[in-house]
Amino acid sequence: MSSILDRFKLDGKTAIVTGAARGLGQGMALALAEAGADIVAVDILPAEDTRRQVEALGRKSVVITANLGDRTSIPALIATAKKSFESLDILVNCAGIIRRAEFENFPEKDWDDVMGINIDAVFFLSQAFVRERLARHAPGKIINIASMLSFQGGIRVPSYTASKSAVQGLTRLIASEMGGKGISCNAIAPGYMATDNTAPLRADPDRSASILARIPAGRWGTPDDLKGAVVFLASSASDYVNGYTVAVDGGWLAR
Q1: 224-237 pLDDT, tens per residue?
Q2: Cys-Cys link to 15, which of 60, 90, 171, 200 (CB 3.0-4.6 A)?
C-alpha cells in the first residue's frame, strides 16, 4: 500500500516551465525536478544554469529559448518539447514582466508588452498544451502564476494588475471546461518575493518597510517558498483541487 508521500512524486513526468532562467521560475523548475520530473526550461534569457542544476538532480532537461510575447513562437515550442520528451504532463506558466507608471501617463507600449507576456502567452500556451493532452487522451496539470494583484488593485502597475486578475479568471475558466477531461488548472499567487520584479520596491526604504510591516511572516518571500505549492499542484496529491488560486504570501492577504 502506497503512502500519501508517494502521491507527491513526479517520477516519469515532464514539466514545461516558462520564465525558468531565474527567480521564481527557476525555483519551481528545480522543485519539480527534486520531486522526479524532467524539465523543459523556457525563457527568452539564457537558462543553461537551470538545465545544469536540473541535471545535477539526476533529471533530464532541455532549454528552449522563446519570446513568449510573440504568440507565433508557441507551436514551435510545443513541437520542440515533444521531440525531446514522449509526454508533456505539466505546464507552469511563470514568465511575466512588469512596468510601472502613473495610470494617467501609462504608455500604450507598456500595456501591450505586459499583457502579451502575462496573459496572452498564458492563454495560447495553455491552449496548445491542452490540445496536445487531448490528442493523446492523457491527463495534464496546468499551474498559472497569479499575484497579490489578482486580489488587489495596487498602484502604478495597471497592466500588471489587469493581467494578473485575468490569469485568475482564466484559471477558473480552464478548470471549468477541462476538469471533466482530466486536465486540472490551478494558480499560485506569490506574495512579495525577493525577485527582480520587486527590486525597485526593496530599494525604496519607506516602501519596503511598509510592505514588511503588513506581512505577518515579517520577511520577503523567496523562490524556495513556492516549492511545496508547485509540487502539490503538479502531483496526484491535488487531483481534486481545480480552479483554485493558492496564496503563498506569508499572510499578506490575511491582514
Answers
A1: 999 999 999 999 99
A2: 90
Q: Are 154 and 191 in contact (CB under 8 A)?
A: no
Q: Is the pLDDT of residue 245 over 90?
A: yes
Annotated catalytic residue within 160, 192, 240, 244 = 160
Is residue 78 assigned to a domain? Answer: yes
* Overall domain count for the chain: 1
* pLDDT confidence band for 107 (50 / 70 / 90): very high
Which residues, listed in sequence order, are joined to residue 183 by a DSSP beta bridge? Answer: 140
Question: Rounded to an integer, what distance in angstroms lies between the CA atom of residue 250 and that of residue 86?
Answer: 38
- Domain residues for 44? 4-247
244 is catalytic: no
pLDDT of residue 1: 66
The C-alpha cell at 242 is: 481545480
Please report whether residue 110 resides in a domain.
yes
Are 74 and 124 within 8 A, CB to CB? yes
User: Is residue 62, in this structure, part of any structural domain at all?
Assistant: yes
Task: Specify burial of residue 214 (Cβ count, 10 A radius: 0-12, 13-18, 19+).
Answer: middle
At 92, which CATH number? 3.40.50.720
